[in-house]
Amino acid sequence: MAALAAPAAATAVAAPETETAALGAVSATFSYEKLDDFQYAGMTLTITRGGAPAFDAVAVPKQCPLPYCAPGNAVDEQSLRVVDLDGDAEPEVIVDVYTGGAHCCLIAQIFRWDGARYVATARDFADFGYTLADGIFTTGDARFGYAFASFADSAMPVRLLTFSGGRWKDVTRAHPETLRADAARWKKEYNKRRRGTLALGMLAAWVADEYRLGKRAAADAFLRSELRAGRLRGDRYWPRGKAYVSTLQRRLRVWGYV
After folding, report:
1. The domain containing residue 220 runs over which residues?
2. Is residue 243 part of a domain?
3. What's the pTM?
4. Listed ranges 57-66, 184-193, 228-237; the one with the highest mean pLDDT
5. Which of 21, 134, 204, 213 is least surrounded by Cβ atoms within 10 Å, i.e. has the fewest?
6. CA-to-CA distance for 105 and 133, rounded, in angstroms?
């Protein structure tokens, strides 16, 4: 008699991990399976509103394809939040995911009730990520990375954003106390480095903050003074000297700092 074939070994399936959050009549559950240290599957978000199911679907934005898209708690304490971002008594659901890579990228997906269904909006907060308090997302302006120096020597000026009605709004100018603290930080770092060639990323962030504080003329005067003193040397791979000043001023106009 032929020997019976041995039963096939069962394939190990990771038990789904879940995060839950709730506010008022809205509760949410974010589920996913961790396949290994770098791969995930089954990222699903369910939302219940007023006791009734309102959303149940894969919660991965196109910028973060599986299996290498990780839940946001890979870089922070949590992936899921339920918060009222605009004070209208209708909470939003936020799911953070992380793309991985040397310099990237935390993406926040916001699920907003539009009166009939939940609509998703994704924003890439790049390396900087964000903190959230009182409906304000505090982050850094990632456009400054590599713009005036290597990434390690780049500084990202503070940026404050709100989300309401499906739209983002930059409210940084409305918080001068935050801008002043950020400007002081970058000026201190610049002063430490100004005699070398690795300072221009810090100087760019300080000038950006000063522009937003309404001190454009004083910031431009300081740039001219540093240029005359020969301190805008910089690294040869990025603008320096007169080219640094003109490039910085041009980009600040384009980026809305003026």
Report:
1. 176-254
2. yes
3. 0.89
4. 184-193
5. 134
6. 21
